[in-house]
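Hi all, a correction to my earlier message: I attached the wrong file for Solute-binding protein. Here's the right sequence:
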Amino acid sequence: MRSVLAVLALLLLAACGGPAAAPSAERSLILATTTSTQDSGLLDDLLPAFTADTGWQVKTVAVGSGQAIELGRRGEADVLLVHSPAAEQQFVAEGSAGRRLLVMHNDFVLLGPAADPAGIKGATAADAMKRIAEAGAVFVSRGDDSGTAAREKALWTQAGVTPGGAWYQETGQGMGATLRVAAEKSGYTLSDRATYLSQPDGLTLLSEGDPGLLNVYHVIEMTTKAGDRVQPEAAAAFADWITGPAAQQRIGEFGRAQYGQQLFVPDAGKPEPVP
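and the right structure:
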């Protein structure tokens, strides 16, 4: 009797189209990246397309490049998208990361109040920093372990200045928040161009085009050498996609319609940009 019931049950399932498929586990990866890719809106444009093309969902952690690298070092991210080349090279040399691939670049710009009390308009980046310090004009720094903060420190060194005192203020926050603070305080700051263009209110672009302001982004795959939770296949999927033709085209087109200019220049497969 039991065998007859079993057969009937199987026939019924077959008639109904078979047993319902078990819900598939969501394929999800963790991307540690910079606040500039988040604040500029680039990730909002790229990530839905990545998910549609690959099936991978993305959980984003937007922090400074140094913090993103640290997440990778601890095995708490599958893939990194960062813009602090010296720190990236040192990290990859440690041996827990996989491929480091060129993705895109834009540039940094020096911003400040329209009145420009330090007179930096048109100056080279290092000279502008020196003038700000000599004038004791307010400079608002991210003051975090980001690629922007690393470039700012390099510019102070080039200018022969050790910043400090009441005129030098640190937010410890991302680029968008730092721009807002600088605008509120009528201060100067260093920003990537993309975030500035997406949040321009209250600040004037005063210095740009210096070779020392080049801002280059790489994708870095993590491996299980960083930790057992790392998903190398997810890292490879993201790295291959963002350096592939479809993503590179999206990167090149991003910002043109809204701002009249591209916010990032796609670089995959090209020689490394050199300041």
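Sorry for the mix-up. The beta strands are 28-34, 57-63, 79-82, 97-112, 139-141, 168-170, 189-192, 204-207, 214-222, 265-266.
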